[in-house]
Specification:
This protein has about 150 residues and is an alpha+beta fold. Helix content is about 25%, strand content about 35%.
Length: about 150
């Protein structure tokens, strides 16, 4: 199963109290392309890990990130969901999840995220997403417009 998803909304203060600007988004996309070009695959997990953000146990791998690009201030990705145990869970409950970037960096005094290293994109419960309020508002608008 392959899907295209929104990952980052540029220049928007998210629920984690940070803003991803053009520099951060370009860095994430560039590092994704370098990583994919170097090792051939970028794996993602079901859920963000609690402690170690760089280690990916094979038992948590649910998908691969096939491509990443920016459209109208939104970083989007093409995701291929795998037939692993957690990948099957993700497929079964796909409407309960969104895809969120995992990176290393810091946030400056203006709440701008400075990404020093892109790690991956994980599938997380949509209610735990940094863009939860924005996505909820969009879901409500779509229902109204139908």
């Amino acid at each position: 199963m392959e899907i295209e998803v929104d990952v980052i909304f540029m220049n928007y203060l998210n629920g984690n109290d940070r803003i991803y600007d053009l520099n951060a988004c370009n860095k994430i996309i560039e590092e994704f392309k370098d990583k994919k070009g170097t090792i051939g695959v970028v794996y993602g997990e079901l859920g963000h890990p609690e402690n170690d953000t760089t280690f990916q146990p094979l038992s948590n791998i649910s998908h691969t990130i096939e491509n990443m690009w920016m459209v109208n201030n939104i970083v989007r990705a093409k995701i291929k969901i795998l037939n692993t145990n957690v990948g099957k869970e993700l497929k079964k409950n796909i409407n309960d999840y969104v895809f969120s970037s995992r990176s290393i960096g810091y946030v400056d005094q203006n709440k701008i995220a400075n990404v020093t290293k892109f790690l991956t994109i994980d599938a997380i419960n949509w209610k735990e997403d940094a863009y939860y309020k924005r996505r909820l508002r969009e879901k409500k608008l779509k229902k109204i417009l139908r």
